[in-house]
């Protein structure tokens, strides 16, 4: 059964959303985006320095060891943090139960990981993994100790506090890594960076959350949280298992150096994603949980968030897909040629994966992690199988295989998400239409400019390519999705920072049109009411 056209009740509901939830969500997106920019700008400097001081094998060793860390943390957390964020009401007994379990399990798993390090070194065919992994086992305890305070900050939508903590922790960790690299510590500079950041973040979370546990532990609360968290754990376990398996396959078949090249390509794509749209995901997960009882309001909010996320991420990722051979040498230095084509392909895959971020938050926010678990199990299984089957053909072929899986996953999510929202699949797929046209058109323009500027210096060619991609992308967006830019400005205007900027505070009404038109726009198959 499909959803009827959104009417007056949704108009009033969405209008109400401009209040507390919408304003705090807008502020959260803005604060976390600022944090990402601050961290990544310093991170660019840090990794540009480290890639000139450390070898691909050093990066590959730490990357291989790091793939197993989130798995052990997941066992310690058991998905309780995700439950705390979305539950209707929380109390001291529930929170204390979650904390003591996480802390105790974190200690046990830290010791277990320390003991398993020699075995995992054999799996990765790299003796250097053993001491690195033994040191990094402390990461499990450090992260588990701060899971409940950080979940409380997210639940309260205190994203400005979280942004400040993350920026401070990352900044200190990156400075420590550079000092150690210049001092000749080699791979241990990367290890220190991985440990300093969670240590600082955990301490700051305890200070700012102002929550302290009691010695209470409720078996009843544990069972309730475990029922929800077990499904979340399943999703994350499958993802970590896939990452671990891919790391093992690539390093065993192609060598640890090849895995280092893959890691650099992945990091470059992740940097672009973090700087542009990743802040939307943790914010919308909380926002979806707060409005999940109103299906019409939820549908309108989801479609708007999807369009904005596609717009925010597709532009820089398209630029990267075109200009990676110019960007990688500038950022990482020479000697990373094998990362160029991999980064280009992964950038295209990253555009397709944008919807997965938002859909993950949607399914968790509405309390349906089980459906997402089944989806993750199938798609991650296909992804790993594809990597294993193509591993002997090289990194580029592996990247193309991943892109193919992303296409299948995107289409699958349209139907799953439509069922949750009570809408047609074509409504959910609508926002993808404009981004597909914008990406193809802007990429073609970028490739044309790149072919015409081969004789120019890299920085000049990069500037011209960026202008071409930007111009065509904005033009396509304006023609096919004219509400995207006004919605982005209206979102900024509803934030606390935007409300202080003259002109932006009026965008919520002056540029947004009537709420009735906005709601029709959100529900139209093309994603824009003006074209229906």
From TrEMBL:
Subcellular location: Cell membrane
A Pfam short name: Polysacc_synt_3
Keyword Ion transport: no
CDD domains referenced in this protein's UniProt entry, alphabetically: MATE_tuaB_like (cd13127)
Topology within the bilayer: Multi-pass membrane protein
Keywords: Cell membrane, Membrane, Transmembrane, Transmembrane helix
Record field: transmembrane: 37-55, 61-85, 97-124, 136-153, 160-182, 188-208, 220-241, 247-264, 308-332, 338-358, 370-391, 397-416, 428-449, 455-476
InterPro entries linked: Poly_Biosynth_Transport
Matching PANTHER family: LIPOPOLYSACCHARIDE BIOSYNTHESIS PROTEIN WZXC, PST FAMILY PREDICTED COLANIC ACID TRANSPORTER
Family membership: Belongs to the polysaccharide synthase family.
Protein name per its UniProtKB record: Lipopolysaccharide biosynthesis protein
């Amino acid at each position: 059964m499909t959803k009827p056209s959104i009417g007056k009740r949704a108009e009033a509901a969405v209008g109400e959303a401009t209040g507390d939830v919408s304003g705090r969500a807008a502020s959260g997106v803005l604060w976390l985006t600022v944090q990402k920019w601050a961290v990544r700008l310093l991170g660019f400097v840090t990794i540009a320095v480290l890639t000139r001081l450390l070898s691909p094998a050093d990066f590959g060793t730490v990357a291989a060891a790091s793939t197993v860390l989130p798995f052990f943390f997941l066992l310690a957390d058991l998905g309780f943090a995700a439950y705390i964020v979305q539950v209707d009401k929380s109390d001291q007994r529930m929170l204390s139960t979650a904390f003591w379990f996480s802390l105790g399990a974190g200690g046990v798993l830290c010791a277990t990981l320390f003991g398993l390090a020699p075995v995992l070194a054999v799996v990765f065919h790299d003796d250097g993994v053993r001491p690195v992994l033994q040191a990094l086992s402390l990461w499990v305890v450090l992260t588990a100790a701060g899971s409940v305070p950080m979940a409380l900050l997210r639940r309260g939508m205190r994203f400005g506090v979280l942004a400040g903590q993350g920026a401070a922790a990352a900044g200190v960790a990156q400075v420590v890594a550079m000092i150690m690299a210049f001092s000749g510590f080699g791979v241990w500079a990367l290890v220190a960076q991985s440990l300093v950041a969670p240590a600082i973040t955990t301490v700051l979370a305890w200070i700012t959350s102002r929550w302290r546990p009691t010695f209470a532990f409720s078996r009843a609360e544990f069972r309730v949280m475990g029922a929800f968290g077990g499904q979340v754990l399943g999703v994350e376990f499958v993802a970590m298992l896939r990452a671990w398996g891919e790391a093992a396959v690539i390093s065993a078949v192609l060598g640890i150096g090849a895995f280092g090249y893959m890691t650099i390509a992945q990091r470059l794509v992740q940097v672009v994603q973090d700087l542009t749209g990743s802040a939307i995901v943790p914010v919308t997960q909380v926002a979806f949980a707060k409005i999940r009882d109103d299906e019409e309001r939820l549908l309108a909010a989801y479609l708007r968030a999807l369009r904005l996320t596609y717009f925010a991420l597709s532009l820089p990722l398209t630029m990267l897909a075109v200009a990676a051979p110019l960007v990688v040498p500038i950022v990482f230095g020479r000697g990373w040629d094998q990362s160029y084509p991999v980064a280009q392909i992964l950038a295209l895959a990253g555009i397709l994966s944008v919807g997965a971020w938002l859909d993950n938050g949607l399914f968790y926010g509405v309390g349906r992690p089980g459906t997402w678990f089944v989806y993750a199990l199938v798609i991650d299984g296909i992804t790993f199988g594809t990597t294993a089957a193509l591993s002997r053909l090289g990194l580029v072929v592996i990247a193309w295989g991943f892109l193919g899986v992303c296409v299948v996953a995107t289409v699958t999510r349209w139907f799953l998400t439509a069922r949750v929202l009570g809408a047609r699949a074509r409504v959910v797929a609508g926002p993808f239409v404009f981004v597909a046209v914008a990406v193809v058109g802007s990429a073609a323009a970028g490739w044309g400019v790149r072919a015409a500027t081969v004789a120019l210096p890299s920085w000049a060619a990069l500037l011209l390519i960026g202008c071409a991609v930007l111009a065509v992308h904005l033009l396509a967006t304006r023609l096919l999705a004219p509400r995207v830019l006004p919605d982005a400005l209206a979102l900024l205007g509803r934030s606390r920072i935007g409300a202080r900027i003259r002109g932006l505070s009026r965008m919520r009404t002056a540029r947004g049109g009537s709420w009735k038109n906005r709601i029709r726009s959100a529900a139209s198959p093309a994603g824009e009411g003006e074209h229906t």
